[in-house]
Amino acid sequence: MAKASLTGTDLFHWIALRRVFDGEVTRLSGRWHDHGHRVPGYVAGALDELLVEGLVVLTDPDPIAEGAVAALTDVGTARFKYLCETAE
Fold this sequence. Notes:
By secondary structure, the chain is of the alpha+beta class.
């Protein structure tokens, strides 16, 4: 049986969670960056939502990027795994 594909908010959240899971997402001067590049608006919006909802947290500042590093919480990790399974 084929599983449903991700759409809308679930898709944007999956993209944002995947980027944080892969590492090197930072927040610098109120803007989100991935590997030093600003993320697109839809990813930034999803990251903001995930931060407010407690699925993503900002950890110790990154001295090289001079910004806070994003990390998944346990709830964020569980949500990411769930979305990955949904998309398989």
